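Batch queue: ligand-bound targets. Current item pairs a single chain with zinc ion. No template structures supplied; prediction is de novo from sequence plus SMILES. Inputs echoed for audit trail.
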Amino acid sequence: MTFREYYTSTGEPENDRMVNMLENVCKAGKKEPLRIEGEVNEVNQKEIERVKNAMDSIDFEMLRELLDDMARRSGLSGEALNFLGKDRIILSTEQLNENVIRKGQYGLFENVIRIFPQGIVLALRDNIASELVKKMENSPNKTASMSLKEINITEERLKLKVLKSVIHEQVHALSFTKIVTKYTEGSLRRFIRIRGKNNFEGFYSVLSGYNKIFFDEDLEGMPSPNKDFIAFDEGVTEKIAFEILNKYLSVEGSDMPAAQVNELEENTKKETTYGLCLDLVDDVIRRVAKQSGFSEDSVWQAIKRSKLEGVNFEDTEIGAFFDESTYKGFFEKLRKLQTSDSKDIEHVQTCLRELDDDYVPKK
Ligand SMILES: [Zn+2]
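Prediction returned. Tokens below.
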């Protein structure tokens, strides 16, 4: 099987020439890996350089083997594994959406990973700053000898953060992807001219792991996406990413202290709602395991496999099964949860936890 499939809106496989054009919109030449996208100036130059160095310290061959191993364990042949090398990784100084500070993004259509050096550094700085403030508040004599000026992002911390972002996006990249296009030569050329970049014109729907995106028109007639099962998909992605990160560090024989990985996990939970999505996945696993009689690990392996294989929730009895294992209406609720709906995600978690009389929080 292949991990990426393209179809026309009439259900025919998209012709190879179009697919090649699409897939090579952003790809860099072999001699030009880690292409930089966007303006480089005095402000961001240093961050780009540091993130580039961190990226260079990542063992991509090993990472590929670990992801390949995971795919094989899930019963999938690794041959067609969509692992993205440095020619498909872009360091971007352009934030695509002003409302969220991004650290990474998987460009579904162009099949590239974007890493945002400023987003990475900013998130790290925020984490360290909040730690410092906490320490200052707790210091007995309140001398506050530590100041925000001391915020020093070590190379080790930076590498860990970059590595984690790269792994997260690689997991998206190797999740089964089905793209349905309605491209004409003209719209494809337009897409290529602006090198992808969140331009949805020409796409009908996309399945990426559990996340199904349909493009409806907004008030101005521009395509605007509806995202189904995105919070669940991000939670699963994040859970896999942490599994791979831990394996990577243990194989590398890294002397990275476990405490630092835990710290990264904790901070990830504070930084974004992805931590909530991660907890949500754990709640679903626990509940389904309990109701089905399978072990939590078997349920998790099945969820993982379905993401890589591309399960279509519409074609199966899964919805009914999910509702039976949880409560009526759960599956539809899960479909509509967006990653930014922190209140709603928490509400669903509470509902799931209330079903278990013997639920004990992890920490
Ligand atoms: Zn993601």
